[in-house]
Amino acid sequence: MAAGTLPLTTAEAAPADERNDLIGRNRLHIVQPGDTLVDIAVAYRVGFVELVAANPGVDRWLPRPGTEVVIPQEHILPAAPRRGIVINLAELRLYHFGKDGRVASMPIGIGSEGLETPDGETTITGKRKNPTWWPPASIRAEKPELPKAVPPGPDNPLGDYALELGWPLYRIHGTNLPYGVGRRVSHGCIRMYPADIETLFNSVRIGTPVTVVDQPVKVGWQDGRLFLEAHPTQRQADEIEAGRSLADWPPTDPIEAIRAGVGDAAGYVRIDWTEVRRIAEAREGVPGLISIGTVRLPTE
Q: How far apart are CA 86 and CA 74, in angstroms?
């Protein structure tokens, strides 16, 4: 990135409650000569795919100087238990629900096609600072030149911190290749930017629950208004990675997510279906208002 451009911190917000599901806020970056979307993503600690998706039509390698680039840092919380760590694979994001009630959101890299990161529930079973990496047999079969063990240091793909999961061979860890964050390029492990994994490592304990979901569509409330956020699916993220259009891929149907999100407000909320269709088709990963007016539920 151009000199003088300041990166922003990880999206964080005060405690979310049952009717306030949005955290963070989006930012704008003015493209400087020499900027690429890859560099901007790393500088602002957002994922590469999510940055490209949020800025359709912006050249990822040669964005025009002066162009306003949306930095997607506002997010609807996934439909999952609000405890410990929640990972949304479609979103390429991790959420940490802290003991103080605050919620942090951080981009991640996940498993590539055929080596997908699993979903389900597990826990943090171990913590390692300056970890040694023992390449598993499957990776050494692909790269026989690898040593049996890679010690801590700049060549270690685990980075400086690793959180072991209850799933054998899977972990949340740092990386020596930050350009791989926010993409589907790993063998199934979850990669994070060095600063983010350090923060997470120091914030969680062994036994912390980890919930992994795959939700390309999310719905949430904020101050009596209903919002919709739509992302590419994991396969569609690969299309974005390859520079192809999503026009031939039908959007994920948001109806079930909207129905679940509306919940007991079904008789009180009016939906802007034109906006629903726009958000679902665009798949930009940016929350959009889909309710008409403000919903005030009657008190019991």
A: 16
What span, in angstroms and rounded, lies between the C-alpha atoms of 28 and 196?
Answer: 21
Pairing outcome for strands 110-111 and 184-186: parallel
The 10s digit of each residue's pLDDT in 249-287 is: 999 999 999 999 999 888 889 999 999 999 999 999 999
How distant, in Å, are the alpha carbons of 93, 189, 217, 218, 291 from that of 89? 7, 12, 11, 12, 27
Give CA–CA dist 73/286, Å, rounded.
9
Rounded-to-integer distance, Cα 109 and Cα 136, Å: 19
pLDDT at 299: 55
d(CA 97, CA 90): 19
Residue 14 falls within a domain, yes or no?
no
**Which is the catalytic residue, given 29, 96, 189, 231?**
189
Beta-strand ranges (E) seen in the chain are 11-13, 22-23, 27-30, 68-71, 75-76, 84-88, 93-97, 103-107, 110-111, 120-129, 161-165, 171-173, 184-186, 190-191, 209-213, 217-222, 225-230, 288-289
Q: Is 155 helix (H, G, I), strand (E, B) or coil?
A: coil
Q: According to the model, what pLDDT value does residue 59 have? A: 97
Residue 241 lies in a domain: yes
Tell me, what CATH number does 48's domain have? 3.10.350.10
Q: Are residues 119 and 189 in the same domain?
A: yes
Q: Is 173 a catalytic residue?
A: yes
* 253 and 197 assigned to the same domain: no
| Residue 294 domain flag | no
Domain extent for 85: 80-213
Catalytic residue among 75, 173, 187, 231: 173
Q: In what order do the strands lie in the sheet with 217-222?
A: 217-222, 225-230, 288-289
Number of domains in the chain: 3
Structure tokens at 58: 């912006």
Mean pLDDT, the chain, whole residue set: 90
